[in-house]
Sequence to fold (510 residues):
Amino acid sequence: MTTTIRFILGDQLSRDISSLADIGGDDVVLMCEVAEEAGYVPHHKKKIALVFSAMRHFAEELRRSDIRVDYRDYDESLASFTEALRDAVERHGADRVVVTEAAEYRVLEMQKDWARDLCVEVELRPDDRFIATQREFADWADGRKELRMEFFYREMRRKTGHLIAADGGPEGGDWNFDKDNREALPDNIAIPERPTYTVDDTTREVLDLVEARFADHPGDLERFTYPVTRRQALHYLNWFVDEALPCFGTYQDAMRQGEALLFHSHLSALINCGLLGARECCERAEAAYRDGEAPLNAVEGFIRQIIGWREFIRGIYWHQMPGYGARNALEAKRDLPDFFWTGDTQMNCLRQSITETLENAYAHHIQRLMVIGNFALLAGLDPKQVQDWYLAIYHDAYEWVEMPNVVGMILYADAGLVASKPYAASGAYIHRMSDYCENCRFAVTKKNGPKACPFNYLYWDFIGRNRERFAGNRRMGMIDRTLQRMSDDKRDAIRDDAARFFRALSKGEV
Ligand code: FAD
Ligand code: DLZ
Ligand code: SF4
Fold:
């Protein structure tokens, strides 16, 4: 009799994953916690705990359905996926392996070698949890001068039928309601309280393991209340749609001191590890709109993040790999400051966003993009070091989604493939969208001098430093002309302030 191993990776925790489609009674599901995955960057403790706990609960769920599971708990001697599979093939006498293509280039390359290296038949199946196939994205992208999310998103709207009106056009007459989604938070708005999930025995074991084996990784395991089962994840999705989605759009770009989640879904980690499907999240949101429970700007905004941005980002990743991670169009070289690992900086917006990140392994999109990312861009931080930080620190971070967001969206290191212009901003943007500046030792209204908000002069220094690189970009050209119209004294003051700032940064004094 022959044995087939169905190998499930830590971000494939979905009952409808293609590798389980035709599972037979004699097949064995292999799942393993391996040193290479847990250690290739210093993942935040809460991220490892979430992945391991979700994996163990998924294995329990499979066993309850009478599926044979070979689950390998973390053990440093189990080095890699390849070693775990080699060992399992021998122990089970397997001659066939069925696996869904990894989401990440590095792991897919491993998978492609398994048949040769392990002398078994390996069936690699596409990951059909994504809405666009890699072929579809490539067909859409090839021959286009510019790849813009907005146009790809419209294709995805047509493909899925989400928010398509009876006449075949977009619901409400527009494809995109982002113009309604840029409000600052009113003082008296009530922010809904999140459901929390109790730590069961399985999670407790994982937390103890992470504390013992990953003590030197960033973050802590305090208040680990995250969903780790399919049932909890569904509950969290339903809670989001009922309680937070109605305000999600309007306040999507807002930030408030001490409020990490606001009206964001906090679903990315659950979708990325497979506990929730991208399609079901969108279906649930659209149903809320059709039932009159959430407005169009919120629902369109949420669906766009998932079938637009998430799919576009994944498309870019596969279209550009390998080599994408090494892009550095702005030749940025500065080392990542230590405060990225401690939050210890006097710039309050950064202190808040990084401290929350260290506490929760989460920050919402605008904190990642317009505070931390904006700083990384303006300060000219080395793209590889920035990538490693984002990959390590966020509980939803997998290379396929982290890399294009860092290389393309925040650092413009791909020379405009993802973003038509750099997402660079002065302190005024952060001031408009948050209350961070009220609690900062720097003055957001001051443009120069030691008390001035560093984002103000770093912004213009960035424009000046890169003016030749932006020469072909019409929108950046307009901004550069404003810089050139400033007096020589003003431009000198910007350069001097930036030089002083970078000297202090290199001494760890910011
Ligand atoms: P919501 O604001 O509620 O959005 C809904 C969903 O839309 C998210 O759950 C997510 O699945 C999807 N989404 C929204 N924006 C993006 C985007 N730009 N790319 C991909 N999906 C998106 N997201 C990750 O899932 N993993 C990452 O490693 C990651 N790294 C990022 C790095 C940087 C520099 C930036 C600027 C963004 C990054 N994002 C990443 C995208 C986005 O910030 C997170 O998906 C979002 O903050 C997760 O919180 P949420 O679930 O509350 O999202
Ligand atoms: C993120 C992660 C971590 C920390 N550990 C494991 C693990 O031990 N075993 C596993 O199967 N998956 C893990 N993952 C998720 C993988 O990194 C992810 O499945 C691959 O990168 C493929 O995309
Ligand atoms: Fe951030 Fe500048 Fe505002 Fe301080 S003043 S919080 S550094 S934007």
